[in-house]
Design a protein that fits this description.
The complex is a heterodimer of chains A (143) and B (80).
Chain A: E1 2-5, H1 11-18, E2 25-32, E3 36-37, E4 40-49, H2 51-68, E5 73-79, E6 81-83, E7 88-96, H3 99-116, E8 119-125, E9 128-131
Parallel strand pairs in A: 1-5
Antiparallel strand pairs in A: 2-7, 3-4, 4-6, 4-8, 5-7, 8-9
Chain B: E1 2-6, H1 10-15, E2 19-23, H2 30-40, E3 51-54, E4 57-58, E5 71-74
Parallel strand pairs in B: 1-5
Antiparallel strand pairs in B: 1-2, 3-4, 3-5
The chains are: A alpha+beta (143), B alpha+beta (80).
Chain lengths: 143, 80
Amino acid sequence: MIKITPKPIDIQKVIDTASSLGAGAVNVFIGTVRNTAHGKNVLWLEYEAYEAMAVAEIRKIIDEASHRWPLLGWAVSHRIGTLKPGEVSVAIAVSSPHRKDSFEACQFIIDKLKEKAPIWKKEIFQDGEEWVSAQPNVASVYN
Amino acid sequence: MKCTVKTFGITRDITGAREVELEVAEGATVHEFKQALFKQYPRLASLTSLFIAVNHAYADDGQVLAAGDEIALIPPVAGG
């Protein structure tokens, strides 16, 4: 399952989708919205995605992970729209017979997703707003 | 050939539209497309990076564009 959704992420569904009777481990990564950036309070984030391409890129990442680790199941759900601090922006779950593989695969998937998936976020502060990582002269703490 | 180009994130703010049109020569490469794009929107050249997606995949500079391709501007991504 690869999902880009404006609705709150159903973490249990992500876990259930990735689970398998043959698995000895399900590894879950949950990304949440942090309340500060550049020492300022973040009021909220605006996420957007190039949805068709994001799904295609995430599928390539999953394919690569499936070649490198013996995965039995997987699921990725990424939220778009307006998210407040504390809300879940992304949930990833993978299962494998032994835990080491699912730990490694899960980290690989979130790292690659952040590098490749065409998803953007804008930080909204009290005194302005900024697309994360977009411009070289603006330091970012999100990468 | 006229290309319709999707914009996202900061590229939408810079161009002021969700889609822009750009005229390039028949058989233009992605590199040539980017030169034409920067001429029309100089501020796009100041981004940390700008990739071009063709038909939902990252395109190399040497890729040749064809009429009907779905082209999109991909500024630095920040998912997760």
